Amino acid sequence: MSGIPGTAVVQVTNLSSAVSSEQMRTLFGFLGDIEELRLYPPDNAPLSFSSKVCYIKYRDPSSVGVAQHLTNTVFIDRALIVVPCAEDD
Description:
17% of the residues lie in helices and 36% in strands. The protein is an alpha+beta fold.
């Protein structure tokens, strides 16, 4: 179901600047077992930004297709955009 065969990574964009990595882990953790989560800029960034981006790597690639269903879900104050992403760092 994901756009990139075999990928276990999703990119989540259009995130509110108020979102934390713990909130993202809680929301996307319901969809599958998270191996790694990276939020940019990180929670402890000294500067403020208008939006953030998050990369989530699941242990099971089938969770990517499920996560894509959260696209257009309003989280805090913005509609999420969830797309599969190639796994190269």
